[in-house]
Amino acid sequence: MERRVEVGVLGATGMVGQQFIRFLQGHPWFEVTWLGASRRSAGKKYVEAANWTLDGGVPESIARQTVHEAKPTNGAPKLMFSAMDASVAGEIEQAFAGAGHFVVSNSRNHRMEPDVPLLIPEVNAEHLEIIPAQRKNRGWDGAIVTNPNCSTITMALGLAPLKPFGIRKILGATLQAISGAGYPGMPSMDIVGNVVPFIKNEEEKMESETQKILGDYAGGKIAHLPAAVSAHCHRVAVVDGHTVAVSVELDRRPGVDALADAIASYRGIPQQKSLPSAPRQPVHVMPDDNRPQPRKDALLEDGMAIAVGRIRECPILDYKMVILGHNTIRGAAGAAVLNAELLLEQGLLD
Amino acid sequence: MERRVEVGVLGATGMVGQQFIRFLQGHPWFEVTWLGASRRSAGKKYVEAANWTLDGGVPESIARQTVHEAKPTNGAPKLMFSAMDASVAGEIEQAFAGAGHFVVSNSRNHRMEPDVPLLIPEVNAEHLEIIPAQRKNRGWDGAIVTNPNCSTITMALGLAPLKPFGIRKILGATLQAISGAGYPGMPSMDIVGNVVPFIKNEEEKMESETQKILGDYAGGKIAHLPAAVSAHCHRVAVVDGHTVAVSVELDRRPGVDALADAIASYRGIPQQKSLPSAPRQPVHVMPDDNRPQPRKDALLEDGMAIAVGRIRECPILDYKMVILGHNTIRGAAGAAVLNAELLLEQGLLD
Amino acid sequence: MERRVEVGVLGATGMVGQQFIRFLQGHPWFEVTWLGASRRSAGKKYVEAANWTLDGGVPESIARQTVHEAKPTNGAPKLMFSAMDASVAGEIEQAFAGAGHFVVSNSRNHRMEPDVPLLIPEVNAEHLEIIPAQRKNRGWDGAIVTNPNCSTITMALGLAPLKPFGIRKILGATLQAISGAGYPGMPSMDIVGNVVPFIKNEEEKMESETQKILGDYAGGKIAHLPAAVSAHCHRVAVVDGHTVAVSVELDRRPGVDALADAIASYRGIPQQKSLPSAPRQPVHVMPDDNRPQPRKDALLEDGMAIAVGRIRECPILDYKMVILGHNTIRGAAGAAVLNAELLLEQGLLD
Amino acid sequence: MERRVEVGVLGATGMVGQQFIRFLQGHPWFEVTWLGASRRSAGKKYVEAANWTLDGGVPESIARQTVHEAKPTNGAPKLMFSAMDASVAGEIEQAFAGAGHFVVSNSRNHRMEPDVPLLIPEVNAEHLEIIPAQRKNRGWDGAIVTNPNCSTITMALGLAPLKPFGIRKILGATLQAISGAGYPGMPSMDIVGNVVPFIKNEEEKMESETQKILGDYAGGKIAHLPAAVSAHCHRVAVVDGHTVAVSVELDRRPGVDALADAIASYRGIPQQKSLPSAPRQPVHVMPDDNRPQPRKDALLEDGMAIAVGRIRECPILDYKMVILGHNTIRGAAGAAVLNAELLLEQGLLD
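Above: the input entities. Below: the structure tokens describing the complete assembly.
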């Protein structure tokens, strides 16, 4: 690629926006040239508008850029990453899509709409075929593509290799990292030396989003997988990395070894096309009994691969296993960037 | 009670033995007068033989007692608490029972034997009726009674109030405290800021022990509950308190409110007889969405009550809930002492 | 005492106010009958006005009391505990003192004023002699008495036994618990697995308050101790208990053993008069090399005693030691209640 | 460099040995071709002999190498890194030096011997001039060079830029990471939610090693800096990164700004010669009040740079500051490798 594609970040000053900016530093295809935020930040230099909370400082190429108000204007790039808070993301993303932009969003607002892809490039790239219908339905020149919630993507990508065996039921209990709650997020008095067995709306997202992600595209529609999904969500005192203990029931039981082989050999378009942010192997099977562990394994393949361990029989459903993913990389900024890479590779951004 | 019953502690110098000694300080019925340990410790003063790792020092009434080798001898009290490591508990407990002692054990060795009660006094006091058969089978004057594993007791006592609805399936995912692994237990490098998704033999214990505890005594036998039980066990960086996320399937679905009422109104013999270590209410239902939490709730009723929260419908089994118990109190020393209180109240120690 | 003294709590709905309410439950001398908070809370039942964040629920005797606006009114008790935020405590405390109330404050606003005692009852009870001057200066019928900052009180009480040797220099480096920052306090993303080497204004408070506390009352004035004090303050991922590593220079060097004896044998008026909240021994010397530790030792004597360990020679100043105190008990609510007990015992509340 | 220099690792199977092996992977100058361990491991493949505890697996180029007994033999490379436990390092390192090897050691055994350099390449490269005397004294063809203890190197390198102002007194209080204690190291029950105010022999090492490191080479001898050094050492629940709160007294007080400039502009031979493991800037000054923090800043320049913050006046000594370093990188394996790079660059390995 001779020249990098200019991209914008909506919600650029927040914690997720900062993660987008950091993840995109040095990206071979994309260059951040437009930063959108609230009216309050508009007109300021980024380094003044943002309360940078990530390690390392504001990247130099970003620090002096002027922040724009997050509305479509001349000069805004066609590709927009949305890191906006759900309280405002809905209307603004629609405004950009209506103005011809391609919005690749990490926000939850449009994830469950029937004509919006909820994309994991290895899993359901064919869901992108809904985009012409989306444009037609809404009269847009642009489009919106979303990525799943951070715990959902971990579980769904970890289980996607089992789809050929017919997934009937998924029960997942999470042990989620504090970085999933953003900044300031959880008060330390609530989580140091503790477990909090509740994350607002998280179980609902895991249950519904998983069905959509694992569903087929057929007859011009995204059909949800008719599997029952049940989630128990917990916050633990881990910085990065969501762990999910999963029991799964299948139409056909291949046996533990065949299941492990199916998981380890799973590949998708990102691997076939060698997309820049794609892991070589999207899901790794860890042999040791006591793995995966978030502090030791979340950064597998720079945080873009999922780790699965302890595949064994379940006395109630068919199999049990532990699935781990990096919630702010594969579960957020990295997920959206990989989505955009797929869009570019498939010619959808032309 | 005019005069306290003398008791011994087998394995008195280890961490669990220390917890027994601490729990029994000031006990209205029992007085520790005999300390048994390995031959290496025999003859030493307790304060010299034990590497005391609990908060506060060695109780004064114990510090100067001489440690005995853990084998039946003249002068050893009839009631013996066993806190021995599983590697040696099997034979020694049998020797004491054979010599006429009543061994109330926290060790795992005899838990699953058909003629040994695996006792939670609120739940299965009638299992004590097996003792005559135990004595006959083994030619003992004494007997062995055991308490369950720390995570099992938490889940089993929390679910016992559901037994009238017919328990068919139990799936539990644990978040277990580090104190459950004893001392030195887990290396800090493995658990600080981390989750370890494996505890050796723990899932097997939760699955088999739960079936025995919740089974009926009928026809001169302890029948196991014919329910499927599946456990996922994890260690987290919590000091005390095991949390278990449970999904359960029942024969009859009473509805969430009736289930909560059944749990909160559950009482057993320890409450009816006001046993000294019995909680007023064995299982509490917590109304807040984000409770129970180990650091805040494990010490409910001095650590002898179980807390249940977030009772809700499960898309796969019938109901989901969160169950919390204090692993070293209700899950170990307190469990055994309550067992002994029941034995005394029922005249079994006469 | 036949009948308990009625007391009020200013700032009753905040976290420190909650700690006062909890600490005063079952107090033999004091009964909370008046709750003051902001106008926004006035008129509501306490249980509705307060977002209770402590373990256990709102005490029953408090839950249904009506919250008052925090200004002097008929019926408000003479003795008022102030747990108000520093942003409002200054004027309100003065208004109550002017209206004849005795304000026992945990807030920082008046601590350093020359005519206000900064009281640790074991250390400087004679500073109460300034009260007539305070009343005269300000034309008040009431008065204000304050307790020190939580890290200051730990270090100052731990070092007070050394005053007879002539304290010249105190250098203290703290490792402070997160509960010292209140609720919500520190974001978990800042402190889990981390150290934060800065607490706003804390070093200044430790340096100036220590000099005032350890000063003499002479010539009708509170003279500050002319010792140099230097503090380094750090936050660590501990729930309760501030640890301070101290080096101290003295006029006379008694030797390590004599120093330990002086610390362990230190007693004050609270011990002589057996005040209800007084520890039997205000400062304990711990013999083990690796103590005191916050998780294991902060609750010494129900959190009202200070623990000192590792007394040894310092190559730069004269001696080094580690001092530990419970920051929300001896460092806040317990400190103020002990102050009020001293006032009552000395007849100042008549 | 056309061809990489072959190196050995003594104590290769232990945790520090593993860190050496990991740090040396892909090193442009050195290639690990010889692995030494105890007789018990000799003859086994490395992957079988070592219980690999670091993240990521055993590097492929190492896994199949055969482990040797750690004694001088034909074929062992001239340059040997020593990661041996202090209980055995003394004699074995001497045996290798006597057999002509250049031993670059992380062990404490020879650090304080007068004719052995205790090297930080930026600080005291001239101490290498003692090597001919070492060889002559001991009749060795080889030599031993050591690096300091992990907390010492952090403090000493952070303070080295102040040497021109005349360092008189250094008082340091540490908050040290658990990785400094190796594996299994501290039991989790001792450190989760806790502080341990004692690390065996650590204060003594910080006090004596700092004086040697900062001393001059003159008259054929390494003179110790005649400064008083006092250390308070604490373990905290941080994974990597030692924080040290330092007060320092100088002959000349340059002012806070000049001090910061001196620190930030400090450079040494590793920077001048661009040694492969050298940080661009050995000591960074962080502008924010609440930095450096171990979890966020320990990996500065891949863990090879030291971070200093909060430079301010001290009421007792002259200046206070916070110094942070990565204990297993700059404080251990990285330190030794940088030492070896300096040796190679200066022609000492020819």
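Note for the figure: Residues 241 and 326 of chain B are 4 Å apart (CA to CA).
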